[in-house]
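JOB MANIFEST
job_type = single_chain_structure
chain_count = 1
residues = 280
[input]
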Amino acid sequence: MPILRIISKKINYWYENGESKCFLVKTSVIKDEENKKQGVTFLISDITEDEEQKRRIHDLTVNFVLFIGLLCSYVFFYAMTKMVWGDSFPKALYNWIIMLISLVLTVFLSYSTSKKFSFTFLKVGKDRFKHDMKFVVGFCLGATLLMIVVKLVLMYSIPGIFPPNKPFFNYYRFLPSGMTVAHSLYFLTSFFQEVLARKVAQETMEEIFVGAKGSIIAVFISSIMFGVLHLHYGFFFMVGCFLYLTVLGFYYRKNRNIWNCVILHLVLGDLFVGFGFASI
């Protein structure tokens, strides 16, 4: 029998328990040889998995394009300021640009993906927070000791590598009289960078690089990407950022605690600048 017309339509259905399904309904109108309508047939197919795969590919593509756009725009801006102003361009303004880009991307991601960006990952139980803080405190103490040793070695092996008029540790930047606006808002910078680096970049890379070593590759790639954002502090500072961002990446890979990553970012960043490594 000839078929007069086929109509296809996707229908989303939600169960009482909140589960959703997507069905493809094909409606066919059948005619006989005299072109008279004989009946209508319906073919219903469950395409939930196919639609979920399409959504996943779309979201991963959007995230990847945004990350590339972030890096390219920042490197372009850095190159432009170096060409026009040279070293006279205030480094604090670079931090403002990074925070602005991170904020814009976080907001954009919340509306650009089919699966809306959720901040439920910020919820951490009290007992778990206390348990993880032991690692944070121990790591900060160990990092402080390591920075002291590294600075002493550099001071005695490469005289003049640090500015002679600066103290061994610049604690003045923590006093109200020496604290800048950018430094006072450094917590926000750390927060937005860690949200993008861990929740968005690292988890996106984990979905792209599947397999046993996929999550390890994701840690290194996300750390490289956000290490480049600290290019304005110099090569050694950028390498140092990559190393400690890698440590944070492996920590987040195991614990999924974003708040401790923010605290480590804040403390280690202040220590790194306070000991003068940003001026090398």
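[summary]
The helical segments are 48-84, 91-112, 126-157, 181-184, 186-208, 214-228, 235-255, 258-274.
The mean pLDDT is 81.
exit_status = 0
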